[in-house]
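User: For a reading group we're discussing how well predicted structures match intuition. Take Methionine synthase reductase. Before you show the prediction, I'll give you the sequence so everyone sees exactly what went in.
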Amino acid sequence: MRCDLKRRFLLLYATQKGQAKAIAEEIWQQADAHGLEADLHCISEMDKYNLETEKDPVVIVISTTGTGDPPDTARKFVKKIQDTTLPPDHFAHLQYGLLGLGDSEYTFFCNGGKTVDRRLQELGAQHFYNTGLADDCVGLELVVDPWIDGLWLALKEAFLSQKEKEGMSSNAISSTPSAAPHVGQELNLSSEVQNMKLEDGVRSSDVLTQKLADIHLVASTRETEPSLVHSIPPVSQSALNIPALPPEYIEVQFQDTHGENPHLSSLISEGTTFEVPVTKAVQLTREDAIKTALLLELDIADTVFDYQPGDAFCVICPNNVSEVEELLHILGLSEKAEYFVSVKVKQGTKKKGAAHPQHIPERSTLKFILTWCLEIRAVPKKAFLRALVECTSDAGEKRRLQELCSRQGASDYTRFIRDSNVCLLDLLHAFPSCKPSLNLLIEHLPKLQARSYSVSSSNLYQPGKLWFVFNIVEFPASPARPVSRKGVCTGWLADLVAPLLHLNKNTLDTEGGSSSTEKISIFARPNNTFHLPADPSVPFVMVGPGTGISPFIGFLQHRQKLREEHTDWEFGETWLFFGCRHQDRDYLFKQLRCFLENGTLTHLKVCFSRDSSTAEQTPPKYVQDVIRLYSKEVARVLLKERGYFYVCGDKKHMADAVNDAVVDILSMEMETDKLEAMKILAMLREAKRYLQDVWS
Ligand code: FAD
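Assistant: Thanks. Here is the predicted 3D structure of Methionine synthase reductase, as structure tokens, for the group to look at:
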């Protein structure tokens, strides 16, 4: 409920996977303790706010998706502000602060936020606080936490200048008698102290000065190295500033065992889901390859699911069965696995805006929730660790959990939790006296996301079939994780198709099917520009090492069919740069030769990064090295013939290296400096002629 004594600001979030929303909610929550009131809305709820008339400061938290796009929820908003007829003073009245979220492993880091920021500036809006750009690659919290800490002072100054502008004395702020001094006091507090405030405003007793002697788990004289469960000085001896205990807000009641779980389609808000049989599974790599790549074929003939080559789609995947059982066991809830539970918001909870989590069905079994709804592998956030402290009975374990969520233990958190990809189960093993309740898991574990895959076929070439290719992700055992694990989705798919794989090993013919009854649920992933040029006479270059080859198989199948069907059409030249480790072990599609032989593919250039060579001149190892050998041709296709350039695959190293190679090529062939070449590449991206589809 709105409290009129508090200063108000508008708080908008644009989220794709929920992170921007969670951060906005955190700001909303903290605002209260600073005597402020945040009017919180999803940026898509354009009927609930109006920037054209907004007088109060505006705070925007916005993530980035795809290849530098704002999230889907911001699409309408961005379209609206990008209206070129808007005058340059359209938002001259607006003061705002923007926090962008992104991942620097992608080329267009934080581009969603940057796009909105740039446009608001062009339309005359003023920053009341510096833009923050948080990087998921190193940990969002490294920027998010200090940005939120500084926000309160910036807001206070924004309110003061707003009042001054309105011709009122700065004292006028005390027209909110109780709020004004409160705000002043709060904003002068150090960020550490702010974070120690408890919900009810009572000073936390969480500044801990426990002595080393009290600590059970802290390093013994022999243990001088810190680890997930051991700390060393100074952390082990510090007084700790730990976050406020997040108020519990979920209540779980066990009901009966009668009834059916909801259909998986009810878990998805992004569109229609299709349950389709897996009709073929082929292992594309040899047993001795470092990674195992599988190709799966889905039968979509009996559905209205449609796709174009280059599209991606999503697979709804469950958590690993034995991990779910283990979790049930540790929670002491194995007996209740098949019980239906009702999940409700706790009456009288102190959590602001507490709502039923959208990804938890109104009625489903406990096992269903742990299997299909919660990302149990998620790296626990500091707030979750803070909550786990309260469910831990051993004093030493308690202290270590406190350290890991404290400011003093920030680098331990990054090293032993975030960078080690520790999940809840790992924590529960490492801290055996920690026995969280089910409601805590529902409150803190994020939604289990469907995984995206690029389509590796053409509906024209093989109607009713959809291919996709993936590497089985493997995480080796480590000190924090006694067992090795496979990726949630790729591990599940690999197990699911294991019997089928046996039948089809090393055959890639598209004829016939198998008698598999295994089905998976998929849905379309819209908004992809990664498609073949509309004009078939336009030449294009494809760069796809490893599983990055996947969408190009679809491109080539499609192109082959078009060539067969339209012998009178003109078709542009096609280039494919492919690379893998070993020619014998992980050359995923040796059938590429067929495309070359029938003229669908004009140039095929391959390289093998781990094969030794007896040639006098060492052959190039990576696709970017091969591309450089064909500088003239690449420049001709891109510049003279207005061709397209597609890059697909590993975002970490390959996409940037290819980008650099193209900049060098443009610079060399146009005899211009690097900066100019970068501008040309930016123009090509803008014109959607340099297209990337990259993933980790
Ligand atoms: P997850 O369990 O989600 O783990 C994946 C990542 O999480 C790891 O890379 C790592 O960073 C981290 N991680 C989680 N747990 C640990 C741990 N214990 N130790 C270390 N790291 C950990 N992939 C393909 O193979 N083929 C494709 O065609 C393809 N197309 C894509 C298209 C798009 C548009 C996008 C966004 C992604 C695409 N991907 C593709 C990636 C794919 O969606 C999945 O991310 C990938 O298959 C891994 O999923 P998973 O559930 O098996 O792994």
